UniProtKB/TrEMBL annotation:
It comes from Lingula anatina (Brachiopod). Keywords: Membrane, Transmembrane, Transmembrane helix. The keyword RNA-binding does not apply. This is Major facilitator superfamily domain-containing protein 6. It is found in: Membrane. It holds the Pfam family MFS_1_like. InterPro entries: MFS_assoc_dom, MFS_MFSD6, MFS_trans_sf. The gene is LOC106167532.
Length: 600
């Protein structure tokens, strides 16, 4: 009787040399998720404008495009990859945390959005849109901060500048309104013909009390939204005290440069003007230095990981996956901590995000101390024969598409959370948004190979353009911030499918021996130039027109790029491939004939 052979299942072999690399990915990306996605919201909190935040956030990708190779050359030159990684992680965390201590812009210097209402009996200013179109839909008692009495009270009401644009000038009967500035003492009026941009200076506001019974005032008694009457103002170097309108007039305004002290006669003094410049300049410098050390960390760890894997470089994704896990986990934890430590929505506490970031990068630096450095680790590779790449039409078209997609990525990275903040999103929701992105990204990376085989690489890029158009369009119609979680699964396409297709396609179209060069160029154009341009352009659009217009502009642009790129790829690139295939077939036939002649 034959004995059964005992079967044993061997436990999976763990590469212990990779454990510090996995720990670094997890801890470093946990630190990234704790702070960097929320940074534009913090810039808004300290008083910086959308355009200023775009400048700060927009120059960093360009910096990374230059800094990464320099740090790589230093690490390769002296063969000190571990020391460079430790130093970069420590100093990145340190300088990023110091940004928390940058002084805020003084409240009176921060532009405040208000609504101007004028009729035959009164002229009022309020932070809530209490009059005009869609007033019946106004919910002052919702979750938004505009419903809080403290938030709706203007902190300064003397010697302000008011810049307004008209909301509606037509009445129900179709008649158009007009506006006059009048001085009741001198019996003099100045008529305004262009209501698209109204500027007045030295505005003095007076709080309207709810129990007021004066015939001069006729206002709606919204107890949670104080209203202010305009007592006096200056225009064209002339002082006025009355706005006269033919019909009801509603305008959206920005009020700024107010003095808290009524006794002051100057609009604003030099020290207050400089405080805004100090905040912007100091934050820019500290963040710039922090990013100088932050940029090379992942690239150096990638090189160390590839050096340990050797011929098994295809398994790099299994190690890098720990970074995704750390990012998804701490994006939620950081948002939850900020909400928990904040006294109210009007006084958010960002310090947990900064301290988590610094702590995680400190632990990442400690983990890198235990890394095994292979002898053949190389972080830098010189960009040789770039002219060969730019002479290829297919490569140029591909790099153009990756630049455009990088611009769109920059828009989302810089202003999605800023936009959600204006919709009164809690920080926890912002963290959940990042979690949904990571969850959507994982299965797409897993099935991307199957999808690419079915539809091809170029169609995947086209699908990504369409997905961005859908994302941007959907954001522009958001009213309830929590609905953003239904939009974020598209990140699986705009990141997971995109980079699976782009990385493989880059390897296919690269000339012999230039695959790594083209990969680096593609990444630099997308994450460097594209991200920077996107942030800068989006900041200007957001500052001028708001988030809704900005997102719709980029949604339309994505469709336009798709309409332009699709025929170029179809009739130029594919035509070139057909010619190349015919040439190769003819050369093959000639070689076959020559071989037959030799045999005969």
């Amino acid at each position: 009787m034959m004995k059964k052979k005992a079967s044993c299942t061997c436990p999976p072999v763990i590469n212990k040399q990779l454990l510090p690399c996995k720990a670094f990915y997890f801890l470093f990306m946990a630190g990234v998720a704790s702070l960097l996605p929320y940074l534009t919201v913090y810039m808004k909190h300290i008083g910086l404008t959308a355009s200023e935040s775009a400048i700060i956030y927009g120059v960093m990708p360009f910096l990374g495009f230059l800094i990464r190779p320099i740090w790589g050359v230093i690490a390769d030159k002296f063969n000190k990859h571990k020391i460079v990684l430790i130093v970069c992680a420590l100093f990145a965390g340190t300088f990023h945390v110091t940004c928390l201590f940058v002084p805020h812009v003084e409240p009176e210097l921060v532009p405040v959005h208000v609504f101007f209402h004028a009729n035959s009996s009164s002229t009022t200013v309020s932070k809530c849109q209490l009059y005009g179109k869609n007033v019946e839909d106004l919910d002052l008692h919702g979750k938004c901060e505009e419903s809080v009495l403290k938030e709706n009270t203007l902190k300064a009401t003397r010697l302000c500048n008011l810049t307004c644009t008209v909301l509606d000038t037509l009445m129900n009967d179709g008649s158009e309104t007009s506006l006059q500035f009048c001085n009741s003492t001198a019996n003099y009026c100045l008529e305004l013909f262009d209501l698209n941009l109204v500027n007045v200076e030295d505005v003095s506001l007076e709080l309207i009390f709810l129990n007021s019974t004066s015939d001069k005032i006729s206002v709606l008694p919204w107890k949670d939204c104080p209203q202010y009457s305009i007592e006096s103002f200056r225009a064209n170097n002339t002082y006025f005290d009355v706005f006269k309108v033919q019909n009801e007039l509603n305008m959206k305004c920005q009020i700024q440069y107010c003095n808290k002290n009524d006794s002051q006669n100057e609009v604003i003094n030099d020290s207050k003007i400089s405080s805004h410049d100090l905040t912007f300049g100091l934050f820019l410098v500290l963040f710039f230095i922090g990013q100088t050390f932050y940029m090379p960390c992942l690239s150096i760890n990638d090189a160390i990981t590839y050096g340990i894997l050797g011929d098994e470089g295809s398994k790099w994704g299994r190690t890098r996956m720990f970074g995704t896990i750390g990012f998804a986990t701490f994006a939620v934890i950081s948002g939850l901590f900020m909400d928990s430590f904040s006294e109210s929505e009007s006084q958010p506490d960002f310090s947990p995000a900064f301290y988590l970031h610094g702590g995680m990068l400190l632990l990442a630096a400690i983990s890198s101390k235990f890394m095994h450095i292979a002898e053949d680790v190389h972080c830098s590779q010189m960009m040789k024969n770039l002219s060969l790449l730019f002479k290829d039409t297919e490569i140029c078209l591909f790099l153009f598409v990756m630049l455009i997609l990088g611009i769109y990525a920059g828009v989302l990275m810089s202003f999605l959370f800023w936009y959600l903040g204006e919709l009164c999103s809690p920080k926890l929701l912002m963290g959940l948004t990042l979690l949904v992105e990571c969850v959507a990204e994982t299965p797409m990376l897993y099935f991307a190979g199957f999808i690419i085989k079915k539809v091809g690489h170029i169609p995947c890029l086209h699908v990504t353009l369409l997905a961005y158009a859908l994302r941007f369009g959907a954001y522009s119609f958001l009213k309830e911030p929590w609905l953003v979680l239904l939009i974020e699964p598209l990140h699986g396409i705009t990141y997971g499918l995109l980079f699976s297709a782009a990385t493989e396609y880059t390897d296919i179209i690269a000339p012999p021996g230039m695959s790594a060069t083209l990969q680096g160029l593609m990444a630099g154009i997308h994450w460097g130039m594209g991200l920077g341009i996107g942030s800068l352009v989006a900041g200007q659009l957001y500052h001028a027109y708001g988030g809704v217009v900005m997102f719709r502009c980029f949604a339309f642009s994505s469709l336009i790029v798709l309409v332009i790129v699709w025929p170029l790829e179809k009739f130029v690139v594919r035509k070139k491939h057909v010619k190349k295939e015919h040439t190769e077939e003819e050369e093959g036939m000639v070689d076959s004939c020559n071989n037959n002649e030799r045999k005969n």
